Amino acid sequence: MPSIVWGRHPQEAYDNPYEHDAQRQFLRECEAMLRELISRLRPHTLKYHRDEQSLSKATWLITMDLLASLLDCVTLLGETRHRPVARVFRDAVEAIDVMRFLHSGSAKAASALRKWYGNETISHGEVRKLIEQLDGAEAANQRRVFYQELSKLTHRTYRALLHSVSLGRDDLLVHDSHGSGLLVLPQTIAAYMAVLADITIQASGSVSATGLLSVDEVAETWGAALESHTVPRRFAMQVNPGYAL
């Protein structure tokens, strides 16, 4: 059985941040999962020409960057270095959504691919239009809200910056860069691990949805990465409303 962090809500993780053994299990499993996916994509190495502008080449490039970036997040969270991780989350979700858009088979997708090879960006607004068309308005709105929440981390909003500070005497702020990393809030690390788990699950689904690997191959990857025993909780679960990125 996998770590409790898989499928964990950031709010619940924030409210119960001291499940360190379960979090270490998650980091082991997440690293194993991502490394196995990258290994299985090795046949694509030396497959694409420099001047080729195919969909499969774009998919491979975006996917490799996505998986490698998530693997970096595993290392960084293991070292309680959360700030670089926060900046990766939105980019990762954008990559997943862009690949779905490019694989939609529409004329807009074909045009967007040509522009992408011309070094232009693909608007996430255009991607959400596709999500609305395929999954409905509610799903598109949920994706928009999720993307905007992650954007707050990227743009370093006030609340995002508070993830780096704790309170000292008289409620005065102390930045976690003081004290050799000992002041990093466990709540921040726990919540970010939950977000990383969610995005990693989405990324694995994208790998099969785009055809880089089959559904069975991705399932085999999960089977190889997840440990046989779930590390049990050490503390009773408590949830407080109001957490937001």
What does this structure look like?
The protein is mainly α and 245 residues long. It has one domain (10-225). 62% of the residues lie in helices and 2% in strands. It has helices spanning 10-15, 20-40, 55-78, 82-102, 107-117, 124-135, 137-154, 158-162, 186-209, 215-225, and strands spanning 165-167, 173-175. It has a two-stranded antiparallel sheet. A hairpin with a 5-residue loop joins strand 1 (165-167) and strand 2. Helix 2 packs antiparallel against helix 10 and helix 3 (55-78) packs antiparallel against helix 9 (186-209). The protein starts with 9 loop residues before the first helix and ends in a 20-residue tail after the last helix. The relative contact order is 0.21. The mean pLDDT is 92.
Annotation keywords:
mainly alpha; 10 helices; 245 residues; two-stranded antiparallel ribbon; 62% helix
The residue-averaged pLDDT reads 92
Helix content: 55-70%
**Strand percent estimate:** under 5%
Total number of distinct structural domains? 1
Order of adjacent strands in the largest pleated sheet: 1-2
Give the tally of β-strands: 2
Q: Helix tally? A: 10
Major sheet attributes: 2 strands, antiparallel
Radius of gyration: 19 Å
Based on secondary structure, the structural category is: mainly alpha
General shape = globular
* Residue runs with pLDDT of under 50 for 5 or more positions: none
SSE order in H/E notation?
HHHHHHHHEEHH
Distance between the termini: 29 Å
